[in-house]
Amino acid sequence: MTRPADSLIIFIARLALAILFLWGGAMKLLGYAGFVGYLHAHNVPYAQFTAPVAVTIELLGGLAIVFGVRTRFVAFMLAVYAIVTAILGHDFWNVTQAALQQDAVVHFWKNVAIAGGFLLLTVTGAGRASIDGLRAPRGGFGG
């Protein structure tokens, strides 16, 4: 049972997390060839397959989080995705130039923090300001 203020804060958190994925997915789609090249440069296996999967996860996952659809499941999947992309895309342990390594370290830990936010959303759910919240049964007496 969430209070209205809690639901508003959860909604704001959902938007904050989703914006990054919606923006990233859109930019990957608009610069698709460059994104595939980036995947190849980072030795991501099956880049031709993983590129459309990544774009789809980011765009559909971001939309699902904004609207609060199957939030617990989607948030958990995006937490896993954030960790996988941290390991594959921000592998600072393989970077030799100091400035580039520092940038990769920051991006790696940002992904870990984002995963943490999604894990919290996995536990809290979407709140009432969501499609999930509209579908949830309401108890009697103010429920």
From TrEMBL:
Keywords associated with the record: Cell membrane, Membrane, Transmembrane, Transmembrane helix
Pfam families tied to this protein = DoxX
Q: Which InterPro entries match?
A: DoxX (IPR032808), DoxX-like_oxidoreductase (IPR051907)
Membrane spanning stretches: 7-26, 46-66, 73-93, 113-131
According to its record, how does it sit in the membrane? Answer: Multi-pass membrane protein
Whether Transmembrane counts among this entry's keywords is yes
Q: Name one GO cellular component term.
A: plasma membrane
From the Swiss-Prot or TrEMBL record, state where the protein is found. Cell membrane
Indicate the family of this protein: Belongs to the DoxX family.
Q: What is this protein called?
A: Putative oxidoreductase
Highest classification ranks of the organism: Bacteria, Pseudomonadati, Pseudomonadota, Betaproteobacteria, Burkholderiales
